[in-house]
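Record 1 of the preview.
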Amino acid sequence: MTQIPTNAGALGMQARADSYALSLIPIIREAMSADVKGLAGLAAYLNARSFPTARGCHWRPQTASDVLRRLVSLGHEWDHHCTEFLVLDTPSAAR
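->
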């Protein structure tokens, strides 16, 4: 769950992070259509297409998880697809 910031700087930072996450929806949908599996797969997909993270870095499974969790917390109708990415990388999914 996204925490509620208490100062103007934090509010601006959260708004930029939310906006960046929202801008990734088309490429995440493309990855889902391409049958990309798991957070590592999503990170590799984003890196292969030269999409930087919000901080201009390479994607890692954790940063993919962070952006998906942010989108889920924003309540998008396709959040069950995000959850599928997240569930694929849990220890119980490997069984």
